[in-house]
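Example 3.2
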Amino acid sequence: MKEKILNFIKNYYVIALAVVSLILPDVLLRGLVGTSVFSGAYVETVSWIFTTLWILLVVFGCMFLLKKHIGRVVFLLFAGAAMVLSICQYVYFGIFNQFFWLKSIALAGEGAHYFGYAVKHLDTKLVLCVVLWVVSLIFTAVKWKRFPLPGKRWKLLGLIPIVALLGMHIYMQPELHNDRMDTWDSWNKPRVVYKRFNDVNKGFETTGFYQFTFYDMFKTLFGGNNVDENGFERVNEYFERKGAPVPNDYTAMLEGKNVIAVMMESMDTWLIDKKYTPTLHHMMENGIHFSNYNAPFFGTGFTLSSEFAFNTGFFVPLSSGSASGFSTNYFPYSLAHLFDEKGYTARSFHFNNPEFYNRGIMHKNYGYERYHSFTEFGLTHGEAQLDSNAILNDAVYQKMTEKQPFFNFVITYSAHLPYNKINTKLAEAMGKYPHLLDEDVPSELNHAQILAADTDEFFRILLERLEQDGLLENTVIVGFTDHYAYGVSDKELLNSCKGEELSYRVPAFVYTPGMKPLEIDKPMMTIDLLPTLVNLFGLSTDGRYIGNDILDPGNPGFAYFENWSWLDENMYFKPSEEEPVTDDMVYVQKQNQRVKESMEITDIVVLGDYYKNR
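Structure, written as tokens:
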């Protein structure tokens, strides 16, 4: 008996090595999620079944069906691709606390610029897992064997994992189990999560690494937008029910004035003070200060997602990878198009080249005359990364102001990560502002403060130049942040800076000299900015948006986020395993339905290119 066991191990242990090689990419990522009741026994069981079936399919196909050398090559390629993708997911999760959709791989070139920052997230767990994977894969390759089958009929065994995977897919349909998709806790039902497949983290928890990857791949290649005339009619009904905006005391208050809208990279609330950002502090104190402005994380490429929302009035759909995928959509009611209808010259500016994030095409589609990289005006790529250098450049400033009335959309860059090491941009900023170096402040925070100071210098110089040219009195500055300073790698330190406020909360304001200071503390989000500006500048109200004019006295404020949480004047609700108290259940259910409908209408409008096809 002992000899039989030893012979069995000797003959088949290579299969165990192959299984280890395939299971490690899944195990590596499981430790990042699975800390909630959601990932309890049922979810864990389902995800492990999916993973087991995929491993059986690959091992059986490569070791039993294919010729020896072909099977080995196919296996090594599959296992290698799996581990590389797993490592990328691991590092991405460490930075953004979520996985990415495969659509996002199109943005890998942009992310390569921050490779050094990503390397910081290569921890001991990752290294040990990769080492173990390399060892197991090498032994698998060296000891590779093909196991001949007794007859051709035995090849039909390969259908077992395929049929089982299909069976699991059918089993996970919520309709078969009467799982409603519109209840308060539908976000927490595994089958509903699987059906929707728009919550990336819960999608992974439910399916495991392999099913998540291949299901995502299938939806990416064959999902389509699934939008038809019924969907467009639903959007029509939604906008009719919502009705046209009602004029209020702020309607056309700034009509005819020049506009410079600045999306401030990573300018978090804790970076605004009299010491590091006195100009921003002054404008927020003496303008319309949106003190409860929130920037959700929809889509991939958080900066790109926020600029899409600001310009179009819609978030990037949750099921999409990047806003750059909608470069051919028709947006007749984008902000630039609306200003263009009023006779404005609309242009956009940023340090990076037009190919980055496909901005050259995207911004043209938004209605801008042209997207301008600061490097067009004689600045080197390194110089253009500091905002103060850009606005000091006469050619840049003249291009912004040469035709009135003008609407400029500017994306700053100084405050962009990384903060954990000295780079060219940070070194230059430290040289410009040596008085802001503070050894008593943790280095990452102090670096972020110094970079924020350079963005503030951009505003100071801009205001100064506008005043010298007699343009300031007739120009409005709109400032808003794309996302919180997630580039601070020490999350506990970052949380201590944010305090009790939501991480989503970031600065936003409207300023022009002489205006009466006003603080708006109602909850709002990125897509509320467009309808608010439409009202302030007396632009066309023919467009309909998910967001609302925050200056409307009948609007109590509302913001929702990619994790299905929401914020209103009464409460902040975040989906959890705890059922809401009975008294709040009806109210929570109503607001959850509002979020669900908003996301679904967004999907139809953006994915279905509603304005082109309606």
